[in-house]
Structures are given as structure tokens and as C-alpha cells.
């Protein structure tokens, strides 16, 4: 019509792929799917740094409240420390879980992801990996610093960091199942807490147990091995459970 | 080669809670044809579209793609469908260009930067392509969706109320895009209250009744 009109969209059309033959297999790579979702979610998270900061700050504050509420004696604090640092990590993980799928669900992204030719289990794995990198990892790195408030010494703090590095991915994985199952449910956030917190209990027991073991002067290896085994089981099983839950939520 | 119905619905029925939205719905499309679904609010247009896309399993009946029955989230259908639903599926935090880039990368090989820019230019968003989608208007978001249709080439387009929020220019773009798509042997299933701006001889109609 007018001279300033942009070129018609038709010119931007790529050539139409042949109708009859699908291109199955070309996009089947699971790694590509993981990479796509990881890169995208990580980029989105980096654009909303405030949200990440809030979660980390929540962890710092909860951990710091306990010494104020209890006795400041070194002995009491050192006893409380591992449990407090671990329980607070659970709560911080819970705080960030709704972010995992809810916004994608509400803006239609999840539909598009589920309809894409890439394997859904791979795509949700990438999302969970991004979630851990932006929630679990910062907590695990922050914990040893906060542990200093609890009069824990260096070997104990190191074990704390290792146990959190092994345990927080399990929290992201198990939490993702809950987050996907509660998609679209009214009061989803509260329901999510009720659903997920009991499932977090074994992680808490072995995680805090590892730290306590070192404090008591015995090896943390059994606890850490169990955490590692739990992580492997979760890594293998959870993506398929989450993919199934996402499909149910979209139906 | 005998002419095959590219996509076909047989005796489709949908149930939402206790309500039967529709039953016994059938349609078939040849390459180059569009199906426009109309009907009053709540008659199940969106549900029918979701069934065709493979997002929802029908309560009864089946969708056949190139002669073969499909199930929900069918792999062959996922290779073929481009779905533009109510929601624009754009990330507010990312720019229009980044959103498009992500969608093309998800659905196939990454599009080169120039074709992303060209597609956004074609929907008159060139100067807005580096802005976060958060600041775009509803119509502009719809236009990004059109650019996605152009970039992610799929034989079967499923469009839910594609004219919503689009201005006259936007509607023309949609029309031109649809005409070119159908002329290349593409298919389209759309729900719309307004007539779609495409060549009428390509359009088949399906009227859903009022909900019982």
C-alpha cells in the first residue's frame, strides 16, 4: 500500500518442508533439548536477578534468626548449626519451586515446549538444571559462610558444603515433580509445600547427618554416599515423572 | 498417488468436567485448505483446537494425520504442528528477537540473525526487536507470534482466535501469511468469530453448537 510499509511477511517465509515426510530423529537429541531449556531458563533468571537475590537473602535471614532466638553459647550453636543450615536450605528451595513451571504454564510456554518435537523429558531436565544453578548452588556456596555464625570449624563447614552440593540437586528434582503436579491447582503453593516437604525428609536426614558425623569425629562417607545414590536415582527417574505430570497439567 | 486427507477428525467428542462440549464432530482437510471453527462462547472451539494439536485427548473419536490415527502428544503430530493459542508464549524478560530465536531453536535448526530481523521487520517490529516483550502491546505480541509462524515452518497451523488484538495492518499480514501457507499446500485449523482474511474457496467451515 504505502511506500514505507515493511516487506510482507511472506518474504520472510522459509521454504516449506515437504508435507509427507516428517523429519523425525533430527531433533531427537536429548542433550540438545537439555541445553536449550537450560540456556533459556538461565537467561530468563539472569534478567530477573531480584528474584534470585530475594531467595538467597531469605536463606541468610532464616539461618541468622536461630542464634537470635536461642542461646548464644558456642556449644548450643554448634549442635543446632547443621540442622538449621539444612532445614533453611529446604525452605529456600521450596520458596523458589513455584518459579520452575508456573510462569511457563501461565504464559503458554509450557504448551509450546510440550508440543515441540524435542523430547519433553530432556526439556524439563534442562529446566531443573537451570533451577538448581540459580537456587540450590548459591545456597550451597553461601552455607559455609553462614556456618561460621554457628561456631562450626573448617572440616565441618567443608562437609556442609559437599552435602549441600549433593543434596540440593535432589531438592530441585523432587520439588520439580511436586511443582509439575500442582500446576493449575488452586492454592498450588501451599499444596506444593505439603506435598514436597515430607519427601525432602530423607535428604535432610542424610545431609544434616553427614555434617553431624564429622562434628562427632566419624566419617561422613556413608551419609554422603547415600545422598549421591539418591541423586543418581532422582536424576534417572524424575525427568520422566515430570514430563508425565506436565502433560497431565496441560490436558 | 491417491488424494489423502492430510488431517481428519472423526466422531470427535470433548468432555470438560461433567459437561459434554460437543460430540460426533468430523472434518477433513486436504493440503491447501483451512478449517474455520466458529460457535458461541463455551461451545468448545479451543478444546477442539487443542484436541487437533494433540494437547488434549478427545473423550471419543480420533484425529488422523496423513491417514494414520494419532494420540495426544503424538510424535508425528509434534513434528507437524505450529500452535498459536490464547497465550503468546513469550517470555516477558527476553526481547522479541531472543524469544523468536529461542522458538526457532526449539523447533529445528537455529535461524540466522538476519532472518530473525527480517521476520520482525515484516511484522513492523524492527525498531522494537531489542525491547523486552514486557513493554510490547497485546497486538505487538500477536505480531511476534506471526513472525514465529513464518520462521518455524510447519505444515499444520492451529490458530486460536488469530485476529484478536490485531489491527487492520496486522490482519492483512495474517491474511498474506495464511494465503502463502495454503498456496504451498499447508493446512490450517483456526477458531475465529470474524471471517479470516484468506481466499474463501480454500476455507471449510465448522459450526459448533451452543453448549448443552
User: What is the C-level CATH assignment of chain B?
Assistant: Alpha Beta
Strand tally of chain B is 9
Quaternary state of the chains: heterodimer
Question: Helix and strand succession of chain B?
Answer: EEEHEEHEHHHEHEE
**Tally of alpha and pi helices of chain A:** 8
Largest sheet of chain B: 5 strands, parallel
How much of the polypeptide of chain A forms β-strand, as a percent range?
under 5%
Q: Beta fraction of the residues of chain B? A: 25-35%
Secondary structure layout plus pairing:
The complex is a heterodimer of chains A (251) and B (212).
Chain A: H1 30-47, H2 49-69, H3 74-106, H4 109-115, H5 120-147, H6 154-181, H7 188-215, H8 221-250
Chain B: E1 7-16, E2 19-29, E3 34-38, H1 45-53, E4 60-65, E5 68-69, H2 75-80, E6 81-84, H3 96-107, H4 113-122, H5 138-151, E7 156-160, H6 168-183, E8 187-191, E9 203-207
Parallel strand pairs in B: 3-8, 3-9, 6-7, 7-8
Antiparallel strand pairs in B: 1-2, 1-4, 4-5
Helix pairs in contact in B: 3-4, 3-5, 4-5, 5-6
In short:
The complex is a heterodimer of chains A (251) and B (212). Chain A has 251 residues and is an all-alpha fold. Chain A has one domain.
Question: Could you describe the 3D structure shown?
Answer:
- The complex is a heterodimer of chains A (251) and B (212).
- With 251 residues, chain A is mainly alpha-helical.
- Chain A has one domain.
- In chain A, 77% of the residues lie in helices and 0% in strands.
- Chain A is built from eight helices and no strands.
- The longest helix of chain A is centred in the middle third of the chain and has 33 residues, at 74-106.
- Chain A is elongated, with a radius of gyration of 22 Å.
- By secondary structure, chain B is α/β, with parallel strands linked by helices.
- Chain B has a single domain (7-207), classed as 3-Layer(aba) Sandwich (Rossmann fold).
- In chain B, 32% of the residues lie in helices and 25% in strands.
- Chain B contains six helices and nine strands.
- Chain B has helices at residues 45-53, 75-80, 96-107, 113-122, 138-151, 168-183, and strands at 7-16, 19-29, 34-38, 60-65, 68-69, 81-84, 156-160, 187-191, 203-207.
- In chain B, the strands form two sheets. In chain B, strands 6-7-8-3-9 form a five-stranded parallel β-sheet, sandwiched between helices. In chain B, strands 2-1-4-5 form a four-stranded antiparallel β-sheet, with helices on one face.
- The termini of chain B are far apart.
- At the A-B interface, helix 1 and helix 4 of A face helix 2, helix 3, helix 4, helix 5 and helix 6 of B.
Amino acid at each position: 500500500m504505502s511506500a514505507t510499509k515493511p516487506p510482507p511477511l511472506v518474504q520472510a517465509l522459509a521454504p516449506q518442508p515437504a508435507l509427507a515426510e516428517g523429519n523425525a530423529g533430527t531433533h531427537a537429541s536429548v542433550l540438545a533439548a537439555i541445553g536449550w531449556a537450560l540456556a533459556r531458563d538461565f537467561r530468563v533468571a539472569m534478567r530477573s536477578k531480584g528474584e534470585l537475590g530475594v531467595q538467597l537473602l531469605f536463606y541468610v535471614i532464616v539461618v541468622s534468626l536461630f542464634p537470635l532466638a536461642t542461646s548464644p553459647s558456642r556449644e548450643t550453636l554448634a549442635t543446632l548449626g547443621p540442622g538449621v543450615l539444612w532445614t533453611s536450605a529446604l525452605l529456600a528451595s521450596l520458596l523458589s519451586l513455584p518459579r520452575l513451571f508456573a510462569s511457563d504454564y501461565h504464559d503458554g510456554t509450557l504448551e509450546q515446549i510440550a508440543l515441540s518435537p524435542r523430547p519433553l523429558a530432556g526439556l524439563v531436565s534442562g529446566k531443573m538444571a537451570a533451577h538448581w544453578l540459580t537456587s540450590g548452588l548459591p545456597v550451597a556456596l553461601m552455607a559455609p559462610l553462614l556456618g561460621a555464625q554457628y561456631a562450626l570449624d573448617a572440616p565441618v563447614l567443608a562437609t556442609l558444603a559437599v552435602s549441600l552440593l549433593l543434596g540440593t540437586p535432589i531438592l530441585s528434582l523432587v520439588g520439580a515433580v511436586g511443582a509439575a503436579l500442582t500446576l493449575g491447582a488452586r492454592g498450588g503453593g501451599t499444596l506444593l509445600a505439603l506435598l514436597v516437604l515430607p519427601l525432602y525428609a530423607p535428604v535432610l536426614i542424610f545431609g544434616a547427618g553427614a555434617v553431624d558425623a564429622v562434628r562427632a569425629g566419624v566419617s561422613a562417607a556413608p551419609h554422603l554416599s547415600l545422598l549421591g545414590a539418591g541423586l543418581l536415582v532422582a536424576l534417572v527417574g524424575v525427568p520422566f515423572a515430570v514430563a508425565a505430570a506436565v502433560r497431565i497439567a496441560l490436558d | 498417488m491417491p488424494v489423502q486427507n492430510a488431517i481428519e477428525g472423526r466422531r470427535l467428542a470433548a468432555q470438560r468436567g461433567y459437561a459434554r462440549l460437543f460430540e460426533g464432530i468430523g472434518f477433513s482437510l486436504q493440503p491447501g485448505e483451512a478449517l474455520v471453527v466458529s460457535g458461541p462462547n463455551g461451545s468448545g472451539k479451543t478444546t477442539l483446537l487443542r484436541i487437533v494439536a494433540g494437547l488434549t485427548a478427545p473423550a471419543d473419536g480420533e484425529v488422523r494425520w496423513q491417514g494414520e490415527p494419532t494420540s495426544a502428544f503424538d510424535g508425528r503430530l509434534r513434528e507437524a504442528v505450529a500452535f498459536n493459542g490464547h497465550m503468546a508464549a513469550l517470555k516477558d524478560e527476553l526481547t522479541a528477537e531472543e524469544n523468536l530465536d529461542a522458538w526457532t531453536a526449539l523447533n529445528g535448526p537455529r535461524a540466522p540473525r538476519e532472518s530473525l530481523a527480517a521476520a520482525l521487520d515484516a511484522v513492523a517490529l524492527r525498531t522494537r526487536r531489542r525491547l523486552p516483550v514486557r513493554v510490547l502491546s497485546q497486538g505487538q505480541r500477536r505480531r511476534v507470534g506471526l513472525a514465529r509462524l513464518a520462521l518455524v515452518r510447519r505444515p499444520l497451523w492451529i490458530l486460536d482466535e488469530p485476529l484478536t488484538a490485531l489491527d487492520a495492518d496486522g490482519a492483512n499480514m495474517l491474511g498474506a501469511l495464511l494465503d502463502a501457507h495454503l498456496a504451498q499446500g499447508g493446512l490450517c485449523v483456526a477458531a475465529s468469530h470474524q471471517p479470516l482474511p484468506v481466499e474463501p474457496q480454500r476455507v471449510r467451515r465448522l459450526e459448533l453448537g451452543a453448549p448443552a
